[in-house]
Amino acid sequence: MCIRDSPKTACELIKMYGSIEEIYKKIDTVANPRVQSLLIAEKEHALLSKQLATLVSDIPELPIDIDSFVFTSYNEDLKAFFHEYNFNSLYNRLDVYKRQS
């Protein structure tokens, strides 16, 4: 078993220490020796998990016209693909758009 299998314990530690980084700064103060051992063994995984779960919001503005991505037409190959792979809701919505030749 590892700490990620116990969300209750993980939540209690975050409430107590404030962040995953603070837990590891004060790892010697974790009262339960078993939990402390698991945290030490799983440190790399815990920090990677936090990094992967953190949303990046400081990206620069992209020089792209968002309107250039609007779907306005289709060709028969797309309609055949949707039909063949049972994308029924997409297939049925294609008639709203004009066909490309």
Q: Which structural class matches the secondary elements? A: mainly alpha
* N to C succession of SSEs: HHHHEHHE
| Count of distinct strands | 2
Q: Please outline the major beta sheet.
A: 2 strands, parallel
| Number of distinct helices | 6
Query: What is the first-to-last residue Cα distance?
Result: 59 Å
Strand order of the largest sheet: 1-2
Mean pLDDT over the residues: 88
- Helix proportion of residues, in percent? 40-55%
Strand content: under 5%
Total count of domains: 2
Radius of gyration based on Cα positions = 25 Å
Task: Report low-confidence residues grouped into runs of 5 or more.
Answer: none
What characteristic shape results from the CA principal axes? elongated
Q: Could you describe the 3D structure shown?
A:
Helix content is 51%, strand content 4%. The longest helix has 11 residues, at 7-17. The protein has helices spanning 7-17, 20-25, 33-41, 43-53, 76-84, 88-93; strands at 73-74, 98-99. The relative contact order is 0.10.
What can be said about this structure in brief?
With 101 residues, this protein is mostly helical. The protein has helices spanning 7-17, 20-25, 33-41, 43-53, 76-84, 88-93, and strands spanning 73-74, 98-99.
